[in-house]
Design brief:
The protein is of the alpha/beta class. The protein is 44% helix and 14% strand. The protein is built from 9 helices and 8 strands.
Length: 302
């Protein structure tokens, strides 16, 4: 099958008609300062909107009677709506991630270079500028459907540490419950100082090679499940609580008092329980990471 030709952007319109220029002035440029101020207030920085109308309107259908100025304004309003959603979801951490990614504090609108393969609307960050991308045949469509595209654009910018989605999952799903789970397991084992090590940094690095990055959303929740739904459930099922011999036997093996989750490339079983240097590792492969219903297969090396 022959390869599809590469997308070639249309040339910018050399000079827009007087009526169009007036419409842009009255419906968009007259409110641009207010729109920029609203974005700047949300992000805590001076922010600019730079849309090249001559380039964008090269894709406006000739028979369109819609206000082009209002259309340009709606792109910016759609961005503001998506930004509010993003900041409501991720707070100050999200603001830091956004500003670190969009280093030029600038918004623009461009045709999607993917051509026919592009979405109706999407977004990316290029050279520090946040770009709203429209399909070549769908200028002005779906302008309020930018939420997930904004998040994906910010997350796609390389940075040290956890993604904002993974970090939020750790805070909301793991840290909110782990102290209670640790106390319950400590009571069951008569080992008040038992350590439940999520091994977040190493596991995050290991999982990052997966093509499907959906694991970020439940990173904290799945990690918690290995301790809460896996370890704790097994200890209860095996009747450790109040059984001095079982508790003593495990304590002899678990000299570090530590249970740790570890992601590896492959495992012989769905989840492996491995004892190394006084640490019990719950090992799971890359392909089985999200199988939370399987955490009950954890067994203890007694």
């Amino acid at each position: 099958m022959p390869k599809a030709p590469a997308f070639v952007p249309k040339p910018a319109i050399e000079k827009l008609g007087l009526a169009i220029r007036k419409d842009i002035r009255d419906k968009y440029e007259s409110e641009k300062d207010e729109l920029e101020a609203a974005i700047g207030k949300l992000l805590g920085v001076s922010f600019h909107v730079e849309i090249n109308a001559n380039e964008v309107l090269a894709y406006n259908p000739e028979n369109s009677n819609s206000s082009v100025g209002a259309m340009l304004k709606r792109y910016v309003e759609g961005f503001i709506s998506a930004l509010k959603w993003y900041l409501d979801k991720f707070g100050d951490e999200g603001k830091v991630h956004f500003n670190d990614a969009v280093t030029k504090s600038e918004l623009t609108v461009n045709v999607n270079e993917l051509g026919d393969k592009g979405d109706t609307i999407s977004a990316d960050v290029k050279d520090g500028v946040f770009r709203i991308l429209f399909h070549q045949d769908k200028l002005g469509y779906n302008q309020n459907n930018l939420n997930e595209f904004l998040l994906k654009a910010i997350e796609s910018v390389p940075r040290a540490g956890f993604s904002i989605v993974a970090k939020t999952s750790i805070e909301e799903h793991f840290k909110s419950e782990i102290d209670e789970v640790q106390a319950e397991i400590g009571e069951i084992l008569a080992m008040r100082d038992v350590v439940l090590d999520p091994n977040f940094e190493e596991n995050y690095a290991a999982l990052s090679v997966k093509p499907d990055q959906k694991w970020h959303v439940n990173f904290g929740l799945v990690t918690l499940a290995y301790f809460k739904n896996g370890l704790k459930s097994q200890l209860i099922n095996q009747k450790f609580k109040g059984d001095d011999m079982l508790q003593e036997g495990l304590a002899e093996l678990l000299s570090s008092k530590t249970f740790k989750v570890r992601v590896v490339k492959t495992t012989k079983t769905t989840i492996e329980t491995v004892l190394e240097n006084g640490v019990v590792y719950f090992q799971v492969s890359l392909t089985k990471w999200r199988a939370r219903y399987l955490v009950r297969l954890i067994y203890l090396p007694l």
